[in-house]
Amino acid sequence: xxxxxxxxxxxxxxxxxxxxxxxxxxxxxxxxxxxxxxxxxxxxxxxxxxxxxxxxxxxxxxxxxxxxxxxxxxxxxxxxxxxxxxxxxxxxxxxxxxxxxxxxxxxxxxxxxxxxxxxxxxxxxxxxxxxxxxxxxxxxxxxxxxxxxxxxxxxxxxxxxxxxxxxxxxxxxxxxxxxxxxxxxxxxxxxxxxxxxxxxxxxxxxxxxxxxxxxxxxxxxxxxxxxxxxxxxxxxxxxxxxxxxxxxxxxxxxxxxxxxxxxxxxxxxxxxxxxxxxxxxxxxxxxxxxxxxxxxxxxxxxxxxxxxxxxxxxxxxxxxxxxxxxxxxxxxxxxxxxxxxxxxxxxxxxxxxxxxxxxxxxxxxxxxxxxxxxxxxxxxxxxxxx
Length: 386
Ligand code: SPD
What we know:
By secondary structure, the chain is an alpha/beta fold. It has helices spanning 3-17, 62-70, 82-91, 106-111, 131-137, 161-168, 179-182, 184-190, 201-211, 221-232, 246-250, 261-273, 305-315, 318-328, 343-346, 355-360, 369-383, and strands spanning 48-53, 73-78, 98-99, 148-160, 195-197, 240-241, 256-260, 280-282, 290-298. The chain has 17 helices and nine strands. Strands 1, 2, 3, 4, 5, 6, 7, 8 and 9 form a nine-stranded mixed beta sheet that branches. The structure holds spermidine. Spermidine is lined by residues 54-57, 102, 104, 155, 203, 260, 263, 292, 294. Residues 54-57, 102, 104, 155, 203, 260, 263, 292, 294 line the site of spermidine.
């Protein structure tokens, strides 16, 4: 090719790049042979996460800190009983991505396929979990596929010691703290300063079963009858049915309550902060208290599973676990958090029980759906005073 031809070729390229309109359009390339369509990538998740949890269970500022770090907006709603959460889950389309069921319901919910398996590759902080707690959770969730612990604690008796001693008028405190809420000799006196029960069949019937010497997780309707016969004798003395008893005890509406270890400790802390002269205490009944584990799960129809994993991983950081124990007075199941828990909380034997009392804690069992229905009927009749 001589210099002249080269110059012409260069000019042609230059002209073409200037978009010379009168040139005919090049023939279209032949269509590629058809191949199997690649699966469409899922659309990116909107930056939203919907969480449904118990009240008074998340440290102040934790949600805001997660939102700031990730740009994910969290909508946070609360429920007061496992029954309320279960009704929503069973109805479906909850609109929630993360829920926090307790062990009275989570085995049946897991078995019914209401949760999606966790993608552990998205949870680098999963390693922080305590293998002992995860081992216990296998009963509710075989192979630990769906649940991670939020916190654990126990259902027990909480008192405003100052008021209880006054109302008992010299009568000695019982050896078994359950007597304060179940034995007529005590309830007759304590009704003057207020007795509160948790408002849920699966909270009250199991502790009543335990008190009458039955298996707390009995599935027998005859056992429920024995428990409710005992409850009927103290019904007239019960002033409050409520599942958010912190204000009731700290605010003076109740002097004795069936409640959860952490919530009773929160009430005790509030009384101190308010410089109340009353002393609030969580008791350790001599026959044992009922342990529970509340767990996070991603609902089967969650719209934001990626954001849900991001939150769960954030929650599984050692710092988050320590905050939950320090602020909400519950152990979390996060082993890496232990060294970050403040000495006052770590040394509180009604939050972190010692080995002797741990051996007395009644571990969660399973109820069948029929039993839960029978329990609800028995409880409602008791509550209505029938
Ligand atoms: N403040 C929140 C307490 C949550 C307690 N969940 C208890 C479930 C016990 N069955």
